[in-house]
Amino acid sequence: MKRWLPIGLVVLGVAFIAYALFGASDKDRVLALLHRAADAVRVEEGDTNPVVRLGRVRSDFSEIFSKDASASVPEINQRLQGRDALVDATVKLGAVYGSAHVTLDDIDLQMDPGGLTAEAKATATVTGAQHGQSVRRDERKVMFRAEKIDGDWRLVSVVAGSRLGTDDDEP
After folding, report:
1. What is the chain's percent helix, strand, coil content, to nearest 5?
2. Where is the SnoaL-like domain (predicted)?
3. Stated pTM of the model
């Protein structure tokens, strides 16, 4: 009996690893990618070292965004083009915000039948505080476009609308 226990644990471990690597559907992978993107832009209290923040954001974004990804946010008057521009803009948030967190809700994900692209609409809730100010909570609609590139899902476009409750709140 005792001889079979280690063998059983090894088989169970291999099965778990196989599921983790091959069991998740493309839809699950894209949903996880969206949540990783929301988490990657966070600003933690005390996250004041721009070099450390740059390293974390650059590393996270290399696994989330394509090299030529773009983003559009109403508060930024120009469309950000390229992963490096997205990294720079995200790192600069740490100079403005003492804390910021993004969560995604009401995600409507549409996968293309060929399995190479996906589009999602979601409500993003941003909770944060600029340095020296009280915490504020904003909601906005966000559209994402992802593509399967070399077998991995990457975001290629993010378009955020204005804060909900304003006249122009759709992306």
Report:
1. 35, 40, 25
2. 59-157
3. 0.81
